[in-house]
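Predict structure. Chain length: 402.
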Amino acid sequence: MASSERASKRLKVTPGFSELACGKATHAAARRKGRAKGAGSEDRYAVESLAVASEAESKTWFAAVYDGHGGPEAAALAAEKLHTNLVDLLSPPHDPRFTTGMSCLSAEMDTAPDGAVDDRVKHAMDAIVTAFRMTDDQILDGGIECGSTACVAVFGRVAFICANAGDSRAVLCRKPAPPVAPPSNDGNDGDATTDAAPGNTSLSAAAATAGAAAPTAAKDWEGTARSSAIRLTTDHKPTLTSERERIVAAGGMVLTVGGVPRVCSENSPCMLAVSRALGNRSLKFGGSVPRGLITEVPDCSYHPYDGSELLVVLMSDGVSDVLEDQAISDVALEAALAAGAATPEEAADAAAEAVVRRARDLRSPDDITAVVVILSEDAWKGGLIEAPTPPLNLDYEEVDTA
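Prediction complete.
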């Protein structure tokens, strides 16, 4: 029998936010090939506060979705350990630059010395990347053979960082952007951004990210609340040129099996449809380069707030395989506005539930998990965007996903 659950957790409001709250929803696929009946969902999530320094205003908040494959053990351990590993790295005797770097999320950047901004962001990202490696080591050392994606967002008072390994996804829902004037011919190409090449980081602001990743079309949603959807992460598939090159250089192959491109090795019976993940021992060491075929190193991106942010949705591919980014953004925002919630966490719960239910209505055959982080009261109290009347109907029928 399929199962679903819901929980909410209020995140303390910090200076610079009108509201910051989180809602989570998950649904286990009723049937899935290769999985024992009643085995339950392989997805996991985590929402935690991280005490970066003694001052309360320096706290950061951690949200993540983990999509397990081959079993739930790797995702479960990641949900338990990745954020605690990050906290450990922000305490002695670890590199003090990690803690200094994390202040980029809670301190105004224009107060930093010249040249220190990018260094602080880099050190914060280095801490997150190191936490991914520590978690991967714990999975591998624990004898766990399965694996998991990891999509993480760390929120501070003035900015947030996204880190992703695998095909779980993060989407930013922003206020609709005004029309953009045609580019001038003055030779100025606008703000520069840093490409998030494999294993590298992006220092692009939210506004610059919007230019780099155009909102996608909503093919399957005719909701009332329109938003601007920005994808914050890369789906790490072996068909990406940079991923395929790394895999081949490490002695692996990319073969299409059952219509799906997969990472393969002559030394491993495992075939994986993602090119980055935690765990997956046989492929981690199945090539000529350790961790070359499948790497746990996430792509990271840094996003200072500019006042347009409404909410962020983290999700497993049970959502993103059936809903486009714009539809995800609109479904979440419309549900939050329509909920008539007394608190932002109630609105966040309603938004997460709506995303999961919409994916289920579209017969997603996979486990479905969404975490919604509300960043502004405009996302649930309205005022900027009018809530639909009558409220969105979230009732749904049992769906056979066989």
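Summary: DSSP finds nine helices and 17 strands in the chain.
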